[in-house]
From TrEMBL:
Official protein name in the record: Methylmalonyl-CoA epimerase /ethylmalonyl-CoA epimerase
Signal peptide interval: none
GO biological process: L-methylmalonyl-CoA metabolic process
Coiled coil stretches, renumbered: none
Length: 145
């Protein structure tokens, strides 16, 4: 089941300046940063609140580390702004993806990949979701239970 908004992904050109904007303007201070080579990003997760299913709710700020990464392509076309929405699952993310695929929505990965903080992620094609790039996230905590 999809139980929460895990995060909103926001494409930015300067991660440090964007983190500083959110820190200064809204007071978000619970910040995790990492580089995800496979996704071609340096990213910051700003925690907004905890959830009851082992996950939490975040803003994900994404800066490209390669010109051929999805975020670089998005920035070149659209500039900075909201890039995707991510729903959290309370169970296996591949099972959720299979259920969604049965409704005719294209799932972009054959198997889940590694997301922030050890999560398992996959994506749904924006053209099948009314123009919204949609990510599914199984938090690391739920995979350990
Ligand atoms: N939101 C909505 N529509 C989008 C989009 C987005 N973020 N990115 C691309 N599109 C649209 C484009 O506007 C384009 O539409 P038109 O044909 O009408 O112009 C169409 O999708 C194809 O876009 P494209 O620029 O040619 O890009 P690609 O097809 O090469 O890639 C996508 C699009 C979604 C398959 C690719 O971005 C992808 O694989 N994304 C998943 C991985 C990802 O986004 N990683 C970064 C985040 C990592 C994380 O969250 O941890
Ligand atoms: Co994301």
């Amino acid at each position: 089941m999809l139980t929460r908004i895990d995060h909103i992904g926001i494409a930015c050109r300067d991660l440090d300046a964007t983190v500083e904007f959110y820190r200064r303007t809204y007071g978000f201070t619970d910040i995790h940063t990492e580089v995800n080579e496979e996704q071609g990003v340096r990213e910051a997760m700003l925690k907004i609140n905890d959830a009851g299913d082992g996950g939490a709710t975040y803003l994900q700020l994404l800066e490209p580390i390669r010109d051929d990464s999805p975020i670089a392509k998005f920035l070149a076309k659209n500039g900075e702004g909201v890039h995707h929405i991510a729903f959290g699952t309370d169970g296996d993310v591949q099972e959720e993806a299979d259920g969604i695929a049965s409704h005719g929505v294209r799932v972009l990965y054959d198997a889940p990949r590694r997301g922030s903080m050890g999560s398992r992620i996959t994506f749904l094609h924006p053209k099948d979701c009314g123009g919204v790039l949609t990510e599914l996230v199984q938090a690391a905590e739920t995979t350990e239970h």
